Structures are given as structure tokens and as C-alpha cells.
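lol ok so funny story. i was supposed to be doing the assay writeup but got distracted and ended up predicting the structure for this chain instead. priorities right. anyway since i did it might as well share w the group, maybe its usefull for someone
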Amino acid sequence: MKIGEYSFKAPVFLAPMAGVTDTAYRIIAHDMGCPLCFAEMVSSQGIHFRNERTLAMLQSEPEERPLAMQIFEHKKARRRRRLPSSNRSARPTSSTSTWAVLHRRLLRTGRARL
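and the output, tada:
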């Protein structure tokens, strides 16, 4: 299996496990033959606000590389642009992308064509 510039003999990787896949665990997994380990999932808010515990989870050692990391976002952290009251019906929903809303607005004004 090949991911980017890395080639792996076995297509089995160590999954991220909260509270388990710390640096020591990942080094042991690499020593036992695991080709790629995932670090714990890290909060984007923790990184943004420079939370000590979150930043500690981002630390790694050369012995555990290649290493994959996942960053997740809290739903509350997502910022939606407020639409004018005349366009409230065009407000994005969970199933409607912001691009689709913008495209509909451009179609309505005649600035975009299908």
C-alpha cells in the first residue's frame, strides 16, 4: 500500500485510541512491526487556544515516524456567516453546502449560469 511518498508492506495500521495511543505506545507498536501509527485525535480548539494537554498530544519522537494525526473540530467552533434577513431561506443547513447557497444567490441575481 502506498500513501503519498510512503510505501507499506502491510495495509494494517494502528488506529487512534483516546487515552491509549500516546508516544510510548506508538514507539512500542513501531518496534513490533506496525508500519503506521495514528496519534490520538486532537481538538482544533485546543490547538487554537494553546491548551497544554492538547499541545502535549502533538509531540512526537523520531522513532515513531511515520506518524498520522487527526484533528477534529467542535460543531460549536464552526462559524456561519449570517445572511441578510431577505435571504433567510437560503441559510445553509447541515445538508446544504455554503457553496450551493452562494451559487443559488448568484443564479438569482443573474451573475452565474448553469
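The mean pLDDT is 77. Helices lie at 23-31, 44-48, 52-57, 98-109.
back to the writeup now i swear
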